[in-house]
Amino acid sequence: MRTPGPHDRVVVVGGGIAGLATALHLAPLPVTLIVAAPLGLQASTALAQGGIAAALGSNDNPSLHATDTLLAGAGLSEPSVAARVAAQAPSCIEWLIAQGALFDRTEPAGDLILGLEAAHSRRRIVHAGGDRTGQRVLDTLIRAAKLAPSVQILENRCVTDLALDEKGSVAGVFCSPCETGSTGEPILIASRAVILATGGVGGLFSYTTNPLSSAGGGLALAARANALLRDVEFVQFHPTAIAANLDPMPLATEALRGEGAILVNSRGERFMEDIPCAELAPRDVVARAIFAQITAGERVFLDTRQALGEGIYEKFPGVVALCRTAGLDPTLDRIPVRPAAHYHMGGIKVDDNGRSSVEGLWACGEIASTGLHGANRLASNSLLEALAYAQWIARDVKETASRTAMTQASSQPRPPLRSIQVMTMQEIRHLMDRQVGVVREAEGLKNAIHHLLAFRHSEAVSNLPDATLVGLLIATAAYMRQESRGAHQRLDYPAISPAVSSTEFTLDQALRMAAEINETLPTRRVA
């Protein structure tokens, strides 16, 4: 490979596993890694307790892993993508080990310990530090990135817009300090490629396991650049967030149920017992069963006492620490739980190389819609997807001819929003949770669309604040999907449609649909 030149710079936005792995794989190309906080903070990766799915057991193989992925995806996962990612999983684990990741083994230097999670037909979940996999992997990649001579890290910087050239291609980013009240024009960082790895949308909901900063900012950037979006209505609600008045909510990993923990209501009834696969049913099934109990006035608890006893201290130290923070002892107490927004299956539509529909723009990790997860992500496939696509994106960027870096963008950053009446984040989260949450119906979705549109900027709907815009996109897509599939459950359309198709649109198309839906509403609506 030739020596990188001045026009080879690549911008990666996001400091979780997707952004860090992509930045490392891009070497020797010069990379500017932009993160909105000190590196390692506000990244969802650190909260991943479950682990990484990989077919490594003697009774397992990638085709079985792909089959489980397709079954969980409820008809919308693409078979070729599932097969490709599952086949890549063992090499992803090997790459992490080469970076210094220490996974749990039967003994020092022994076999990897493989865990079981919901909807997996085999034990194939690789862990590090018990239930601290995400944090251990994140720490490993941060160390590697800080040592990499090709990676420049810009912390506490927010990307305010993508820079477009005269052809509408992405050729850089506009970037500003993230501090509230910072002054000055955003600066342009020109690049041959931009990779968005900014995570999901959980922060848009009142109950979430995600950092509150994960509110769809990267999705808004791509939408305004006219990128094609896909299946944004599919938001996965993790069934067992710990209900202890913390925001975001701590997670009681699915692996607890893999080890035999059970779900009971206030009366001690094991309400999952007669459902196929019981507590290890797909996440959407478990989440809806728990939500039904809560709607009926019950509290729901995860009971680990008989299955794990004091063994929980060794196997799940992270969960124990979280319980203690909430004043609980899982060897004595049942853990109160409820569903919470956890993972976004939809996002920026990308191809097998992570390319979006806009020249110069790639996406990796939760922000991307690769075709892997479909309507319902299989447990522990998220970190795997990010690792696999990081390799493929880096290879594609390297093989793409460099362009002359812009000295001046043809597009300009959006002006700051004038002082207008806008929904607070608390209002948006409450609205999204009530009307676009675990269970949806037409009137509630119309109501959400109406209220999100009502607070538009006076000049252009597309200039809505990011959280309002992304909430509107999700609500609009959810209204358009008139069926129940995977994580998307409609009370007014309870059946799955025989016609399987994805929801795809650009920002302009979505806004036209939202306006048409809004026109069908009565004059007065109450949130």
What would you say this structure looks like, in words?
- The chain has 527 residues and is an alpha/beta fold.
- Among the domains are: 239-341, Alpha-Beta Complex (Flavocytochrome C3, Chain A, domain 1), CATH 3.90.700.10; 425-519, Fumarate reductase/succinate dehydrogenase flavoprotein-like, C-terminal domain (Methane Monooxygenase Hydroxylase, Chain G, domain 1, Up-down Bundle), CATH 1.20.58.
- It has 15 helices and 19 strands.
- The strands form five sheets. The protein has a five-stranded parallel beta sheet with strand order 6-2-1-10-17, with helices on one face. Strands 18-16-11-19 form a four-stranded mixed beta sheet. Strands 12-15-14-13 form a four-stranded antiparallel beta sheet.
- It starts with 9 loop residues before the first strand and ends in an 8-residue tail after the last helix.
- The model has no long low-confidence stretch (mean pLDDT 91).
The count of DSSP E runs of length 2 or more, i.e. the number of strands, is: 19
* CATH architecture term of the domain at 239-341: Alpha-Beta Complex
Main structural class: alpha/beta
**Count the helices. How many?**
15
Average predicted local confidence, pLDDT = 91
> Could you tell me the radius of gyration in angstroms?
22 Å
The end-to-end span amounts to 59 Å
Query: Which fold name is given in CATH as the topology of the domain at 239-341?
Result: Flavocytochrome C3, Chain A, domain 1
Please describe the topology of this protein.
Elements (H helix, E strand, L loop, with lengths): L9 E4 L3 H9 L5 E4 L17 E2 L8 H11 L6 H21 L14 E2 L9 E2 L6 H15 L3 E4 L2 E8 L5 E8 L9 E4 L2 E4 L20 H8 L4 E2 L4 E8 L12 H4 L3 E4 L17 H13 L4 E4 L1 H4 L3 H4 L1 H9 L9 E10 L2 E3 L11 E3 L4 E2 L12 H18 L25 H11 L6 H13 L11 H15 L23 E2 L1 H13 L8
Parallel strand pairs: 1-2, 1-10, 2-6, 10-17, 16-18
Antiparallel strand pairs: 3-5, 4-5, 7-8, 8-9, 11-16, 11-19, 12-15, 13-14, 14-15
